[in-house]
Design a protein that fits this description.
Blueprint lengths: L10 E6 L2 H12 L2 E5 L6 E5 L2 E7 L3 H7 L16 E4 L3 H10 L3 E9 L4 E7 L5 E5 L9
Parallel strand pairs: 1-4, 5-8
Antiparallel strand pairs: 2-3, 3-4, 6-7, 7-8
Helix pairs in contact: 1-3
């Protein structure tokens, strides 16, 4: 009976200034295919495997009235309490492509020995932090 209550992860919804621009940016900078952009440009989706990365305007009244106003960082010294982590087999090439297509570099890719992942960070066109990493490899236990 409880197994009927197990959720499937459906969407990560990113609130952005301009849905069409963000969809285009993510397609070019991170290599996603666009699944959908509605005619009103109030909803867009990227193909990202079994889940979906979706975009909607920051000022969407349907959710603002229910859950409050979207808060955004006021400067590059602040960040949202969430980040996207995109996994690549070649983090360095993916990082380079992202920056060439408008992502703002935050930290060049480097190996993180503590958790066995190669990781770099960029900011998207709305200032959100995007972690670009390899698959996590098991680390030796002492």
């Amino acid at each position: 009976m409880a197994s009927n209550l197990k959720p499937t992860f459906g969407y990560t919804i990113v609130y952005v200034k301009d849905v069409a621009k963000s969809i285009d940016f993510y397609a070019k900078a991170f290599g996603y295919n666009v699944r959908r952009l509605d005619e009103s440009h109030r909803w867009g989706e990227l193909e990202s495997g079994q889940t979906t990365i979706a975009f909607t305007p920051r000022q969407q009244h349907e959710t603002k009235d229910l859950t409050g106003t979207v808060q955004v960082p006021k400067s590059d010294r602040e960040r949202a309490p969430m980040e996207l982590c995109l996994i690549y087999s070649d983090v360095d090439a993916a990082f380079k492509r992202a920056v060439e297509n408008g992502a703002v570099p935050v930290s060049e890719p480097e190996d993180k020995q503590d958790w066995g992942q190669r990781v770099g960070y960029v900011r998207d066109i709305d200032g959100m932090t995007v972690r670009m990493g390899s698959h996590v490899h098991a680390t030796k236990q002492d």
